[in-house]
């Protein structure tokens, strides 16, 4: 029976209890030094490229005017909780040429648009500058249509209906065709609450 005897190396110091010649510290130091130099060189290269790009863009933009003057947005701080910063932002946005981005997510703009529509739909007003055509409230217009019916074109009155076809009769409008957004409903509820508190 043959048994394998481990080779004994006279150069190995068995008193350490572990292999002491596997890891070389010089290799690790060289790798870390090379990595640090690579990171520094890459960072400097990025800074140089960025400054070069900014220089060419500024040269392409031409001289500074009121439309392309640089603004440091970092000085604006937290816009959500600072009214003064919001005012400064509004001033900056006012100087920017249109078309501009919406700064209020469109909720206020939609609310104002529907308020204008309400003025036109719920009141009498002139439809033109010559005071020839008049707008009437939409509720009154629907009542008149329900009473008198829609106007019929001359050619359509002569056409015969199909067999077993019934002509449509408008008895009453089912809806005014207008639905408010949740934001507008909340605003209307707040305004109603303010009016009730004012009466008290």
Give descriptors for this structure.
mainly alpha, 3 domains, 200 residues, 6 helices, two-stranded antiparallel sheet, 2% strand, elongated
What does it look like?
There is one protein chain. A two-stranded antiparallel sheet has the order 1-2. The N and C termini lie far apart (112 Å). The model has no long low-confidence stretch (mean pLDDT 76). The protein is built from six helices and two strands, in the order H-H-H-E-E-H-H-H. It is elongated, with a radius of gyration of 40 Å. It is an all-alpha fold. The chain folds into three domains: 25-68; 76-105, no CATH class; 106-152 and 171-189, no CATH class.
Spatial sequence of strands, sheet with the most strands:
1-2
Helix-strand category: mainly alpha
Percent range for helical residues?
Answer: 40-55%
String of helices and strands = HHHEEHHH
Number of strands: 2
Coarse morphology? elongated
Quaternary state reads single chain
Largest sheet: 2 strands, antiparallel
What does the secondary structure layout of this molecule look like, with pairings?
Elements: H1 25-61, H2 83-95, H3 107-122, E1 125-126, E2 134-135, H4 138-148, H5 154-158, H6 182-199
Antiparallel strand pairs: 1-2
Outline of this structure?
The chain has 200 residues and is mainly alpha-helical. The chain has 6 helices and 2 strands, in the order H-H-H-E-E-H-H-H.
